């Protein structure tokens, strides 16, 4: 420690652009179990002709003398299929599928899987019971499409953070309901849990409202060669095990993201991501896997292993300041380079501009609301060139302004939100809203009435 610091002086350094709050951020629940109990349930779903398939696997702890009864109930609480034992397949003729927001009515259709255990133990007979919401849907990826229930799906949504005034990262139901209200208002059908797993309640809301999730683990800031060691890789795999175990049964989760902006052009990143992605696929063969890159397409060593290319770029923000006229060319080149190299669908997983609410400037200058709008407009022109070809999504950075460490680059936090930290809209929010509803109407609902229909059906309006 240089001599201009007091002896023993310590400051924790973090290598990411959000605030590292301390303390308990979510509810802590204590619960008891019977001697023999249902420890875990894994559900995967499929569709065969007009029947839905629900495959279940149940793990029971501390007991060998037990019976399991499984029942699937529809939204009206009518039993539509039943089974027994630790694993099996339930067939639901004429199943109601789980569809993303705007592809069907709200709320999204959920069945309930009831699992009832009865066991003989040394202390006598015991029973255990669990209900799991189940959405029947399929996810698949082709060379150029992301398919949900066999239909091309276009992610038009946001990246978020668990962050707000007063509460910081602390879980807050009113805030969650407000955020969902804004997502529905916006016509957003997806978000990425940048850059860590979110509270389980968030995913439960996504299941209910059909908001599709790219579920990201906390591997952010893997930027130094030593971050790609075997120790780090093994730890990373354990973290993916925890994430998959926790979130595997959410129909809203359609893809795992194993990292955000790692130094994936390092030689050692190739083996590292091959191993982490292969491991994640083995844990859950039912979902595609990605990581979010900002490396050059020609240098990226991890990209060969992902199912979908998720690429971040900040044209006319972190370089070519003010030169909005370059965006379309640069974005088009970015997409073409990635696609010709990998022939995989691409999501623009971040783009945006720092914007101080209430700053106005004509002609648009950086940090003004006009600049954010103009930058988005240029991106949208570039995205529209490739949408429907092989670009399968766009996620704005960021849903709302959020707190970061203090640095000379940040004015009271990161201001790339289309909403302020208090969830008030900047001009860009209206622009994005027009766009998302237009995309929804073009691609899902051919009838222009879709916007009002969906808003009327919204549980929050
Ligand atoms: C991206 C990061 C994100 C940052 C954003 C930004 O993924 O965490 O907050 O840039 O600079 O590189 O605003």
UniProtKB/TrEMBL annotation:
Residues covered by the Glycoside hydrolase family 2 catalytic domain: 139-440
Annotated function: Plays an important role in the degradation of dermatan and keratan sulfates.
Native species: Sapajus apella
Membership in a protein family: Belongs to the glycosyl hydrolase 2 family.
Pfam family, one: Glyco_hydro_2
Any one GO cellular component localisation term in the record: extracellular space
Signal peptide: none
Annotated ranges, domain Glycoside hydrolase family 2 immunoglobulin-like beta-sandwich: 36-137
Coiled-coil stretches noted in the UniProt entry, renumbered to this chain: none
Entry-linked PROSITE patterns: GLYCOSYL_HYDROL_F2_1, GLYCOSYL_HYDROL_F2_2
InterPro entries for the chain: Beta-gal/glucu_dom_sf (IPR036156), GH (IPR017853), Glyco_hydro_2 (IPR006101), Glyco_hydro_2_AS (IPR023232), Glyco_hydro_2_cat (IPR006103), Glyco_hydro_2_CS (IPR023230), Ig-like_fold (IPR013783), Ig-like_GH2 (IPR006102)
Catalytic activity, EC: 3.2.1.31
Enzyme class, spelled out: hydrolase
Superkingdom: Eukaryota
GO molecular function terms attached to this record: beta-glucuronidase activity; carbohydrate binding; signaling receptor binding
Protein known as: Beta-glucuronidase
GO biological process: carbohydrate metabolic process; glucuronoside catabolic process
Gene3D superfamilies: Galactose-binding domain-like, Glycosidases, Immunoglobulins
């Amino acid at each position: 420690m240089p001599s201009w610091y007091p002896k023993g002086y310590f400051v924790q350094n973090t290598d990411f652009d959000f605030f590292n709050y301390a303390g308990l951020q979510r509810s802590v629940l204590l619960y008891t179990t019977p001697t023999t109990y249902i420890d875990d349930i894994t559900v995967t779903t499929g569709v065969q002709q007009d029947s839905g398939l629900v495959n279940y696997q149940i793990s029971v702890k501390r007991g060998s003398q037990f019976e399991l009864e499984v029942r699937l109930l529809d939204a009206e609480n009518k039993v539509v299929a039943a089974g027994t034992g630790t694993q099996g397949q339930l067939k639901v003729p004429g199943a109601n599928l789980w569809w993303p927001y705007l592809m069907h009515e709200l709320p999204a259709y959920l069945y309930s899987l009831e699992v009832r255990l009865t066991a003989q133990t040394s202390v006598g007979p015991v029973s255990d019971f669990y209900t799991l919401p189940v959405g029947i849907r399929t996810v698949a990826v082709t060379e150029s499409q992301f398919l949900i229930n066999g239909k091309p799906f276009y992610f038009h949504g946001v990246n978020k953070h668990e962050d707000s005034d007063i509460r910081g990262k602390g879980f807050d139901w009113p805030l969650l309901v407000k955020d969902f209200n804004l997502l529905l208002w916006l016509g957003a059908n997806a978000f990425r849990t940048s850059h860590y797993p979110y509270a389980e309640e968030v995913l439960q809301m996504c299941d209910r409202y059909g908001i599709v999730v790219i579920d990201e683990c906390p591997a952010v800031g893997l930027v130094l060669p030593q971050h790609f060691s075997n120790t780090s890789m093994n730890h990373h795999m354990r973290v993916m095990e925890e994430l998959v175990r926790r979130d595997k049964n959410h129909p809203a989760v359609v893809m795992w993201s194993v990292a955000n902006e790692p130094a994936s052009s390092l030689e050692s990143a190739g083996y590292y991501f091959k191993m982490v992605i292969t491991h994640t696929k083995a844990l859950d063969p039912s979902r595609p896997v990605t990581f979010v890159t900002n490396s050059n397409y020609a240098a990226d060593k991890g990209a060969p292993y992902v199912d979908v290319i998720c690429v971040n770029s900040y044209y006319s923000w972190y370089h070519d300041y003010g030169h909005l006229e370059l965006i379309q060319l640069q974005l088009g080149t970015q997409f073409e380079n990635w696609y010709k190299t990998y022939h995989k669908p691409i999501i623009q997983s971040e783009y945006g501009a720092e914007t101080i609410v209430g700053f106005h400037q004509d002609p648009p200058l950086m940090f003004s609301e006009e600049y954010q709008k103009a930058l988005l407009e240029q991106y949208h022109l570039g995205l529209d060139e490739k949408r429907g070809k092989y670009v399968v999504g766009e996620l704005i950075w960021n849903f709302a302004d959020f707190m970061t460490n203090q640095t000379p680059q940040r004015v009271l936090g990161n201001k790339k939100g289309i909403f302020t930290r208090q969830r008030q809209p900047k001009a860009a929010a209206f622009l994005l809203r027009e766009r998302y509803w237009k995309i929804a109407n073009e691609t899902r609902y051919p009838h222009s009435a879709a916007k009002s229909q969906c808003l009327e059906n919204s549980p929050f309006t």
